[in-house]
Amino acid sequence: MYIATVEDMMRCAIEIDWRDFFPYLSWVPNRSYEARVFAAIARKNAVMRALVKQQKERIARGEARKSYLDFLLAESELTDEQLTLLVWEVLVESADTTLVTAEWAMYELAKNPDKQERLYQEIREVCGDETVTEDHLPRLPYLNAVFHETLRRHSAVTLLPPRFVHEDTVLAGYDVPAGTEVVVNVYACNMNKEEWDSPEEWAPERFLDGRFEAASMHKTLAFGGGRRTCAGARQATTIACAAMARFVQEFAWRLREGDEDKVDTVQLTTYKLHPLHAHLTPRRRN
Questions:
Q1: Residue 53 belongs to what domain range?
Q2: pLDDT by residue (tens digit) across 104-158?
Q3: Greatest extent of the chain over all pairs of C-alpha atoms, in Å
Q4: Are residue 136 and residue 226 in the same domain, yes or no?
Q5: CA 209, 220, 133 angle in degrees (round to 5)?
C-alpha cells in the first residue's frame, strides 16, 4: 500500500519528460514515460478504491469509527474520483516528508547526546511519568525547536515544484518574463549565511532566542507561506513531534559507530542514503 500510494507517486513527480526541454516537439509521443506514469496512477487509484470500499462495508456493518473518510462519504455530492483523491492527499502529505523529517531528527539527536538529554529533561518536566501525547506538545518548546531546526538543516524537499510566472516581473533585480517556470532552491535558502548563523550546524537553540514567533517559523519554507501554505502543516507537525517525543521518552539513542557523518540523497525528498542505525537503551520510568 505504501509503495503504491506514496513511493511510486513521489517517483512520478520527478520523472523527466524530455518534451519539457523541447516544447516545440511536444506533439511527439513519449510512450515509455506515459506508460510508467499512467501505470503508477492506476495502481494508486486501485488501492484507494479498495480502501474506500472497505470502509463502506465497515460502515454498513456498524463497525467503523468516525474518521475523515466517514465525513467525506457523508458528502453525497462528491464523485468517486474526488473522494479517492481527497483521501490519497491525506496519506501522501502525512507520510513521506513526515517520515524523512522524523528520521533526520532522530539522527541528529542520537549524534548530539547533550541536545537529546535537554529534550528528555523537558519531556520529564512537562509529562512526568505520563506518556507524552499531542496535548503536551504546546508545552514543549525545545521539541518544537528540534523539529524546525531539522526542517531547516535537512529540508525534506530541497527544490520546490516549479512555479509559473503569469506576468512580467522583477525578482531580486532580475527581469523574469511571463511564461517562465521558477524553481525555489530551499536548501540554498536555509544554508544562506546572510540569513542564518553557522547554517551548517544543527542547533535547535536558534529557534529559542526570541527572534522566531510562531508565524515566522515558515522562514524555513518547509510548509510554504501565505495563501499557498501547506494544508497539512499542522498534521505533519503533530505526527512528527509526537513520534520524536515518544522515541526520546522511551529510549536513549546512540548512533552506531561510523554513522556520524551525514549522508543524504535526493529523490523528491531527501532520504538518508543509508537508513538510520542506532543503539537504543530503554529508559527507566519511575
A1: 2-93
A2: 999 999 999 999 999 999 999 999 989 999 999 999 999 999 999 999 999 888 8
A3: 70
A4: yes
A5: 70
